[in-house]
Amino acid sequence: MRRATILLALAVLAAAPGLGWAHAFPDHSEPRVGHTLDAPPPTVRIWFDGAIEPVFSEIRVEDSGQRRVDKGDSRVNTADPTLLEVSLPALASGRYTVIWSVVARDGHRTEGRFPFRIK
């Protein structure tokens, strides 16, 4: 009886793909995580593995002194709902941190951060 119950539970889980795996996680970014650039990028872009909610998703960039340096126009790209981006001014050489927080279309929040450096 117990074995049948376990098999039935596994069959139900297998029949519901995506159940419990609906969080949006970063797929790749520009600049890449930990990358050193020769020149400052005009934008920071992060692509996620699923669509994200524009109202609840944000990206910011801070310098090594934890001062916000982006232009404050964080947005989800209207043509690609998996792309979160923010514009940057002409940044000086140094180390920067990208901090992001997104909500997937199903309401699950994920967040993270990564560094990049400009020569």
> Which sheet architecture does the biggest sheet show?
4 strands, antiparallel
Helix content: 10-25%
Number of helices: 1
Low-confidence stretches: 4-20
Query: How is the quaternary structure best described?
Result: single chain
Q: What's the average pLDDT? A: 87
User: What is the radius of gyration?
Assistant: 19 Å
| SSE order | HEEEEEEEE
Structural class: mainly beta
- Terminal Cα span: 65 Å
The shape is elongated
Strand order of the largest sheet: 1-3-6-5
| Strand elements, count | 8
Question: Strand-residue fraction?
Answer: 35-45%
Explain what this protein looks like in three dimensions.
With 119 residues, the chain is mostly beta strands. It is 12% helix and 39% strand. The chain has one helix at residues 2-15; strands at residues 26-30, 36-37, 43-48, 58-63, 75-76, 83-87, 94-103, 109-118. Strands 1-3-6-5 form a 4-stranded antiparallel β-sheet, with no helix packed on it. It has a 4-stranded mixed β-sheet with strand order 2-8-7-4, with no helix packed on it. The protein starts with a helix and ends with a strand.
